[in-house]
Amino acid sequence: MKQLLVLGLAVLAVSCNTAQNAVAKKMTRTDYANTITAAELRDHLMIFAGDAMQGRMTGTEGQRLAAQYLKNYYQEIGIAAPEAQPDYFQEIPASYFSRMKEPVGSENVVAFIEGTEKPEEIIVLSAHYDHVGMREDGTIFNGADDDGSGTTAMLEIAEAFKKAKEDGNGPKRSILFLHVTGEEIGLYGSKYYTENPIYPLANTVTNLNTDMIGRIDPDKMDNPNYIYLIGSDKLSQDLHDLSEAVNKQYVGLELDYTYNDENDPNRFYYRSDHYNFAKNNIPVIFYFNGTHEDYHKPTDTPDKIEYDLMAKRTRLIFQTAWEIANRDERITADKL
Ligand SMILES: [Zn+2]
User: Would 9 be classed as within a structural domain?
Assistant: First the structure.
């Protein structure tokens, strides 16, 4: 008798809790940001930068396996391809890769979440998924940081937006997830996209490009809570101010503008895919952790990634995209 009574109370308590959760829990942008986790980033990157991908050199089997991984992921979580590219691949003809010894074709991978109020205005989130391949002796360049980190960050950001959309909190503007190929051999994938845009560049509001966000610059070991931002104020003070405000309110990383300096000899602003958007007067932000001893070496492996830090940086990109997608006014290129 006693035992039965206790059981009855426990069942009652459980059912009350469940009902309360369903009614009272209103998901916020921070809840969605928190679906981006170090553990999930790690799970993706262990595969994406694993040896089976053979270093993802443009035009090789490894690159095609990587493209297929991305496509499968979007299909699994239910994010559609753009109508104009229904199989998720934007094919680039071999003739376009003039700098290769023996030119072969390749493909960008694209997925799309349509905006609820201003679907014609597009935010492009980009990361290159190619890397430099293998040596003849079979040594693999895994490219975990470059740019497995940016690629897998995009997958988690996409999932967070998808969850928001399922709850009726989808972005007001549209988001294109653009995984570009051919970066390491000359920014080809982003160049091809901007010359053959799926959505008009005139309606492309901003490009947020992520290339290497999983490691710590040796100069920053004492204060690893940072990310380098490049380009945010070049075309748009509006974008720069938004980015600063979002970080302050929701994330709290140190935003370091060392490499944003026009006189910096590294000239990183011109060296990754966002530049092809900036050339077309589209405001951009490039997210970057700086170089390190494993940069473009076979030792850029997924076990060396700082996953907690990478998750925090990924949440900054998500929150920034959220703000650009949802605020009333479109970002303006006010410095043109
Ligand atoms: Zn890169």
Answer: no
**Are the C-beta atoms of residues 209 and 157 closer than 8 Å to each other?**
no
**30 in a domain, yes or no?**
no
Whether the CB-CB separation of 134 and 58 falls below 8 Å is answered with: no
Compute the distance from residue 98 Cα to the ligand 1 centre, in Å.
20
Asked if residue 209 is part of any domain, the answer here is yes
How far does the centroid of ligand 1 lie from the alpha carbon of residue 272, in Å? 7
CATH number at residue 141: 3.40.630.10
User: Ligand 1 centroid to 205 CA: how many Å?
Assistant: 23
> For 12, phi and psi rounded to 5 degrees?
-60, -45
Are the C-beta atoms of residues 241 and 158 closer than 8 Å to each other? Answer: no
**176 CA distance to ligand 1 middle (Å):** 20
How far away, in angstroms, is 144 Cα from ligand 1 center?
Answer: 10
113: containing domain: 36-326
The DSSP code for 78 is T
pLDDT in single tens digits along all 336 residues of the chain? 445 444 445 555 555 555 555 455 789 999 999 999 999 999 999 999 999 999 999 999 999 999 999 999 999 999 999 999 999 999 999 999 987 888 999 999 999 999 999 999 999 999 999 999 999 999 999 999 999 999 999 999 999 999 999 999 999 999 999 999 999 999 999 999 999 999 999 999 999 999 999 999 999 999 999 999 999 999 999 999 999 999 999 999 999 999 999 999 999 999 999 999 999 999 999 999 999 999 999 999 999 999 999 999 999 999 999 999 999 999 999 999
Q: Is residue 153 within 8 Å of 210, Cβ to Cβ?
A: yes
Tell me if 335 is assigned to some domain. no
Measure 197 CA to ligand 1 centroid, in angstroms: 22
